[in-house]
Design a protein that fits this description.
This protein is α+β, with helices and mostly antiparallel strands and 303 residues long. 16% of the residues lie in helices and 37% in strands. The chain has helices at residues 3-22, 248-259, 268-271, 283-294, and strands at 31-35, 37-41, 47-55, 62-69, 75-82, 93-97, 105-111, 131-137, 148-154, 162-164, 173-190, 193-200, 207-218, 223-226, 228-233. Strands 2, 4, 6, 7, 9, 10 and 15 form a 7-stranded mixed β-sheet that branches. β6 (93-97) and β7 (105-111) form a beta hairpin. α2 packs antiparallel against α4 (283-294). The longest helix has 20 residues, at 3-22. It is flat. The termini are far apart. The model is unreliable at 3-26 (pLDDT under 50).
Length: 303
């Protein structure tokens, strides 16, 4: 083999080494926290939304996460979680509460007890969900727009976001020193001298004091966060029995519900075929449906 061939092999080896060293891998992360994406139907209740946690280096023995719906008019979060079959199934301390209320958000906290290596989540990835959030899909209102709903994981508030190891130390959080200002307004003057003052948050003020404040900052190079999505399937208006079709079987289901103590509609929204503002399901819907199916009447219009 000539010297040129040896030189070429050497260049290739060096290039591969540089690429290997420069290319980031998932192991550079300490935590990967992500909300899954799911599909649900109008009116569906108790739908489970998985939240995943990959901890590549540290044992996780505690966490607090705050989840928020971007479109709360379509879905609502319950103040409960499902832990069966999750990474924290054996944890005795899981709490779930709303910060804002009205089904728009939920804050979930968990701690292994006693806090220690053997009770926490050992380093793992691509495993079972951390927890399942629980949500309901609302029945549409008159001016309802079918849409997707983003589920956000808020990390900008340290009191509502954090992950701890078995020693109680925060994972992926650094501390930064930032300048802060304190404003003071004089309330009693003795000539040109201020003898009494109060601290204020807005002008006007007479003096200002600059101090250094230590604040917690999430290190995004160590912790990756991703929100999820709820995709609500559009249910056909008039699909009363839930088979994704609008036909005679739906009319039979409506008659059974109204007069024969039959099963309720698969969706109250889909059964309001005349689009009445009060969304009541009554004889007027049946009349409208018969006219549409057999007499060439106007189409169904659930909203």
């Amino acid at each position: 083999m000539g010297s040129y061939a040896f030189l070429r092999i050497g260049v290739i080896v060096i290039a591969c080494f540089v690429v290997f060293v420069a290319s980031p891998t998932s192991q550079t992360l300490r935590l990967d926290i992500r909300v899954d994406s799911v599909i649900a139907d109008i009116g569906q209740t108790s739908v489970l939304l998985p939240v995943y946690l990959d901890n590549f280096e540290d044992t996780v023995a505690g966490f607090t996460f705050w989840f928020r719906l971007a479109s709360p008019d379509l879905c609502s979060l319950r103040t409960e979680v499902v832990s069966l079959g999750t990474l924290v199934e054996s944890w005795p301390a899981l709490t779930c509460q709303s910060v804002v209320g009205n089904g728009t958000d939920v804050r979930v906290s968990g701690t292994s007890a006693p806090m220690g290596f053997e009770n926490g989540i050992a380093p793992q990835s691509q495993g079972a969900p951390l927890v399942y959030l629980v949500f309901d899909v609302k029945e549409p209102s008159l001016f309802f727009q079918l849409d997707n709903v983003d589920v956000e994981l808020i990390s900008s508030f340290s009191q509502w976001f954090g992950v701890w190891d078995q020693t109680g130390q925060s994972i992926g959080v650094t501390h930064d020193t930032v300048p802060d200002s304190n404003l003071y307004r004089c309330t009693v003057w003795d000539g040109d001298e201020c003898v009494d003052w109060q601290q204020v948050s807005l002008p006007p003020y007479d003096s200002v004091e600059y101090v250094d404040r230590i604040t917690s900052v999430l290190d995004t190079s160590e912790v990756h966060i991703a929100g999820g999505n709820i995709d609500v399937d559009e249910l056909p208006c008039g699909d009363i029995n839930g088979d994704d079709l609008v036909d005679l079987s739906d009319l039979i289901a409506l008659v059974g519900f109204l007069f024969l103590s039959g099963d309720p509609p698969h969706s109250a929204w889909a059964a309001n075929v005349n689009g009445s503002p009060d969304q009541a399901i009554d004889l007027s819907d049946l009349t409208h449906f018969v006219n549409h199916l057999f007499l060439g009447g106007p189409g169904v219009q659930c909203y």
